[in-house]
Design goal:
This protein has about 350 residues and is of the alpha/beta class. It has helices at about 5-10, 20-30, 45-55, 70-75, 95, 100-105, 120-125, 155-170, 180-190, 230-235, 245-255, 260-280, 305-310, 335-345, and strands at about 60-65, 85-90, 110-115, 140-145, 175-180, 205, 215-220, 285, 295-300, 315, 320-325. The protein has two domains: about 5-20 and about 260-345, Alpha-Beta Complex (Aspartate Aminotransferase, domain 1); about 30-255, Aspartate Aminotransferase, domain 2.
Length: about 350
C-alpha cells in the first residue's frame, strides 16, 4: 500500500489515526485572531472550563494538558509518592503502553491485577492491599481504572461505585484513565459525570484526542484538595501550553451541540456493525464484548497480511492471532462494509 493511499484512506488501526473533526478545526480557526494573555489566562480557556463544569460538576477543578500520557502521569503524581504503589489492570495503558512513564516520573511502583477483559474488581485489588506499615514494602495509595478499557469493555456506574467505595474504605484514591470516556458514556447512555465523578472517581484523565481533537486532554479533579499544587506540577512537567486558547477552543467545540456524544456514539455504532460482520466470517471469533469503539477478534493467521493490505489494523495478541480494530468519528458504514466484503473474499466466505 503506497504512502499516498494510506494517507487518503480511513483505517481501523486506532482512533488516533483519524484527522480533526471539522467542527473542532473550525473552532481553532475562530480563535486565531488578536492577542490574548498566554498560559491559560485568556477568556477562551475560562469559557471552555466553565462549559466542562456543566458536564463534570460545578466544583470540578480542570486543567488542560497536551497528551494522554501527560494527563495520566500528572494525575498519578497527585496520588502517589515514590514509596507508594498504584494498582491497575495488567492491560492498563499506564502499565503496558506508556514506556514506564508513570514509574519514571512518579517514581512509584505499578501493581498489576490480571484481567481477561480489561476490568478489575475488589478481589483483584485486595491481593495487593498487604504489608501496610512494613517499611520494606511499597505502600499502595491509589487504584487506576480505564474507561472504556483497553479491551473496549465498559464499567457500569455501579461497578465503579463498588470499586471506589472499597478503595476509599482502605484509604486509597481512585484514578480513571478516561481516554475513551466519551465512548463509554455513550455506550451506557449516562452522563460523563455519572460515568466518572458521581461514581466515586477522585481524579480523571479525560481524553479529547481520540474523539476528534488534534491534541488536548484534561485533568479533572473531583476531590479539589488533590489539585492544590497541580498548577506547579503541570508547568514542571512541560504540559502547560503557552497558547492555551487553541486547546481550549477544541474542548469548547467538543462540548457544543454535544459533539463529544455525537462522535462517540457514531464510532460505537460503527464498531458494533464491524463486530457483527466479523462474527459471521469463517475462522473469526470475537473475543471481547463490543461495548464501545473497539473490536477484538481472532483472525486466521495466514490471512492477516492480506487483510491488512486492504485496511490497516493491529495484531493485538500474536500468540493467539487476536487483532484489534478501532472505529472513529469519521469511520463510515461504507468503510466497514468494504472491509467486510474484502474479508469475505480473503477468507473464502
Amino acid at each position: 500500500m503506497t504512502n499516498e493511499r494510506q494517507s487518503t484512506r480511513r483505517h481501523l488501526a486506532s482512533d488516533n489515526w483519524a484527522g480533526i473533526h471539522p467542527e473542532v478545526l473550525a473552532a481553532i480557526a475562530s480563535v486565531n485572531s488578536g492577542h490574548v494573555p498566554s498560559y491559560g489566562h485568556d477568556p477562551y480557556t475560562a469559557a471552555a472550563k466553565e462549559k466542562l463544569r456543566g458536564h463534570f460538576g460545578e466544583s470540578a477543578e480542570i486543567f488542560f494538558v497536551f497528551s494522554g500520557t501527560g494527563a495520566n502521569v500528572l494525575s498519578l503524581q497527585t496520588l502517589a509518592l515514590p514509596f507508594n504503589a498504584v494498582i491497575c489492570a495488567d492491560t492498563a495503558h499506564i502499565f503496558t503502553s506508556e514506556c514506564g512513564a508513570a514509574e519514571k516520573h512518579v517514581g512509584c511502583k505499578l501493581l498489576a491485577v490480571p484481567s481477561a477483559d480489561g476490568k478489575i474488581d475488589r478481589d483483584g485489588i485486595t491481593k495487593h492491599l498487604v504489608r501496610f506499615g512494613d517499611d520494606h514494602a511499597v505502600q499502595p495509595s491509589a487504584v487506576s481504572i480505564t474507561q472504556a478499557t483497553e479491551y473496549g469493555t465498559v464499567y457500569t456506574p455501579d461497578e465503579i461505585q463498588v470499586i471506589s467505595g472499597f478503595v476509599h474504605e482502605h484509604g486509597l484514591k481512585l484514578h480513571m484513565d478516561g481516554a475513551r470516556l466519551a465512548n463509554a458514556a455513550a455506550s451506557l447512555g449516562v452522563s460523563l459525570l455519572d460515568a466518572s465523578g458521581n461514581a466515586g472517581v477522585d481524579v480523571l484523565s479525560f481524553g479529547g484526542t481520540k474523539n476528534g481533537m488534534i491534541a488536548g486532554e484534561a485533568v479533572i479533579f473531583f476531590d479539589r484538595e488533590l489539585a492544590a499544587n497541580f498548577a506547579y506540577r503541570r508547568m514542571q512537567a512541560a504540559q502547560l501550553s503557552s497558547k492555551m486558547r487553541f486547546i481550549a477552543a477544541q474542548f469548547d467545540a467538543l462540548f457544543t451541540d454535544d459533539l463529544w456524544l455525537r462522535s462517540a456514539s457514531h464510532a460505537n455504532r460503527m464498531a458494533a456493525r464491524l463486530g457483527k460482520g466479523l462474527a459471521s466470517l469463517p475462522g473469526c471469533t470475537i473475543t471481547q464484548r463490543v461495548e464501545a469503539n473497539e473490536v477484538f477478534a481472532i483472525i486466521p493467521r495466514e490471512h492477516i497480511a492480506a487483510l491488512q493490505s486492504e485496511c490497516l489494523f493491529h495484531v493485538w495478541e500474536e500468540s493467539i492471532s487476536e487483532a484489534r480494530f478501532v472505529t472513529s468519528f469519521d469511520t463510515t458504514e461504507a468503510d466497514v462494509d468494504e472491509f467486510l466484503a474484502a474479508a469475505r473474499r480473503v477468507l473464502g466466505a
